[in-house]
Specification:
The complex is a heterodimer of chains A (about 350) and B (about 80). By secondary structure, chain A is mainly alpha-helical. The longest helix of chain A has 25 residues. Chain A has 20 helices and no strands. Chain A has a domain of about 120 residues: Orthogonal Bundle (Topoisomerase I, Chain A, domain 4). The two termini of chain A are about 30 Å apart. With about 80 residues, chain B is mainly alpha-helical. Chain B has a single domain, classed as F1FO ATP Synthase (Up-down Bundle), CATH 1.20.20. Chain B is about 80% helix and about 0% strand. Chain B is built from three helices and no strands. The longest helix of chain B has about 45 residues. The chains are: A mainly alpha (about 350), B mainly alpha (about 80). Chains A and B meet through helix 1 of A and helix 1 of B.
Chain lengths: ~350, ~80
């Protein structure tokens, strides 16, 4: 790593490391499980989420307040990362956070497809990408799926949305593929090998999740292949084709050849629950990025580590509160937490 | 007539002093540049950490001035050159 590389990342890395130090420590999650929702909201209201909880407290109550405060905080935190970074780091962060544009477009399209109200759709949008909250507000006001797609015609996402024929799943897959294809292109043009490695591992983990879901649903090889995202580091196209064709027990056994087996080896006796598998894969992803971010401390990796950790923190808090609200047993909630 | 092969000792002494002064200058100058290069990344990181949490001010300041020791080495060498030789 050259001198200039170290200087380029020193500022943003020190900043995200300080931000990471303010995340909720994982020892807190078991304590949350013993608290009631008002207690958790109070705790959150005194932490990094204070500003959002105070601001939205007039408008929402209970779990709605919680949900909105978490989403807003996540969006503002990610936007801050874009604002305080420069040059190459800024480019990579901006491209990576387009994930939220894809997320918001999917949310709005799903909402419109199922006839959800504007308020319900806005509950789930996180304006952390390039589409600002006011753009999303405009999109939510449009009545039909076709109208939303037409409104997005000037965005880079239009090629994925363009062939909409009434099946939402198709354009959602296209959006995911477009997002990752653009991201790989961005990684290759910036020549950041750390970013590319992280990205390709993320694609592998995503493909594994898709494979597990589709395999347990008994889908055919051709249908599964349509959903998989090309560009993984270990699971190349030939591997994916082979894995997609195997029946579930053989598919699980075939995974032993890959390094991802480590992630699910602990639960290999009980692979009936998809939740367990996905939690383990998410955990693997988190541990992986945290580990490599310490190997290369002055690179984009610590920033990506923070982005992943922050998202998981918000997800965990949401799981706890939603689980408590629906009175799920503690063990079930715990099984969903990624920490 | 003055023999050109005989050099005036006063000129030799003056030349030597001049070369020592140049050496001292190089020692201080290069060390300053080196310290600056070291502080560049540390200073940026310290400001980044401080922007998030003011508590890092003390630690940040301490870390930033550590490469200054190189500049002091340069200064010491320069002083030795100037006053010992």
């Amino acid at each position: 790593m050259g001198k200039s590389q170290a200087v380029k990342y020193a500022y943003i890395v020190a900043r995200v490391r300080a931000m990471r130090g303010k995340l909720i420590p994982k020892e807190m999650y078991p304590k949350f499980l013993n608290m009631d929702i008002p207690e958790i909201t109070r705790f959150i209201g005194e932490s990094e989420y204070k500003k959002e909880v105070d601001e939205l407290g007039k408008k929402y109550r209970g779990t709605d307040l919680f949900e909105h405060a978490l989403n807003q905080n996540l969006a503002l935190t990610y936007r801050k990362l874009i604002e305080v970074s420069q040059n190459e780091a800024n480019y990579i962060i901006t491209e990576y956070l387009r994930y939220w544009d894809v997320w918001n477009i999917k949310t709005i399209l799903r909402g419109k497809f199922s006839g959800a109200s504007e308020e319900e759709i806005l509950e789930d949008v996180v304006s952390a990408g390039q589409l600002r909250y006011r753009d999303l507000l405009e999109l939510v006001k449009i009545a039909s799926v076709e109208g939303v797609i037409a409104a997005l015609s000037k965005t880079p996402y239009y090629p994925a949305l363009f062939g909409y024929k009434g099946v939402l799943a198709d354009i959602e897959n296209n959006l995911d593929k477009l997002y990752y294809a653009n991201l790989i292109k961005a990684g290759e043009s910036s020549k950041d090998r750390f970013f590319l490695k992280f990205l390709r591992t993320e694609i592998d983990l995503k493909n594994l999740k898709i494979l597990f879901r589709m395999k347990s649903a008994g889908m055919e090889r051709e249908d599964i292949l349509k959903l998989l995202i090309p560009g993984g580091i270990e699971l190349k196209e030939a591997d994916l084709g082979r894995l997609a064709a195997l029946p579930f027990p053989e598919f699980v056994r075939a995974l032993e050849e890959y390094s991802y087996w480590k992630a699910i080896a602990g639960i290999s006796n009980d692979l009936t629950s998809l939740i367990n598998i996905e939690t383990q894969l998410d955990k693997y992803g988190l541990v992986n990025i945290t580990r490599i971010s310490y190997y290369y401390p002055l690179s984009i990796l610590p920033v990506l580590d923070y982005i992943v950790s922050k998202k998981l923190e918000v997800d965990n808090l949401r799981i706890i509160v939603r689980g408590k609200e629906t009175k799920l047993p503690e063990d079930t909630i715990k099984a969903h937490l990624v920490m | 007539m003055v023999d050109p092969s005989v050099v005036d000792p006063a000129i030799v002494a003056a030349n030597a002093k001049g070369i020592i002064a140049i050496g001292a200058g190089i020692a201080v100058g290069l060390c300053g540049i080196g310290a600056g290069m070291g502080e560049q990344a540390i200073g940026a990181a310290a400001v980044g950490a401080m922007a998030e949490d003011e508590k890092f001010f003390g630690k940040g300041l301490l870390m930033t001035v550590i490469p200054e020791s190189i500049a002091i080495f340069g200064l010491v060498v320069a002083l030795i050159l100037l006053f010992v030789f």
